[in-house]
Amino acid sequence: MVKTNSGSSESESAEVAESYNHWLREKIERAIANTRPAIPHDQVVARVQARIDAARIRRKSAKD
Fold first, then answer.
1. At CA 26, angle to CA 11 and CA 7, rounded to 5?
2. Does the predicted model carry a pTM greater than 0.70?
3. What is the rounded CA–CA span in Å between residue 26 and residue 32?
4. How far apart are CA 43 and CA 46, in angstroms?
5. pLDDT tens track for 15-49
6. Are 1 and 11 in contact (CB under 8 A)?
7. DSSP string, 1-64
């Protein structure tokens, strides 16, 4: 077994890569099969911005 710079073996690295690839393939397949209606980009951006703004307000009020 050949050790890599991080101390793990190449076979362990291959196992980790295969595990990740399997997880990613399943995630992609679920996304493709999803029949829920798409959410418009502008709506998603607005929701995320509202969460960011709320977090800033909470952080600021926690400091005061």
1. 20
2. no
3. 10
4. 5
5. 999 999 999 999 999 999 999 999 999 999 999 99
6. yes
7. --B-TTS-BHHHHHHHHHHHHHHHHHHHHHHHH--SPPPPHHHHHHHHHHHHHHHHHHHHHHH-
pLDDT tier at 5, thresholds 50, 70, 90: low
Distance (Å, whole) CA 56 – CA 62: 10
Residues 6+ apart with CB under 8 A from 2: 9, 10
- Which token pair is 28? 């992609």
**Tokens, residue 62:** 């926690």
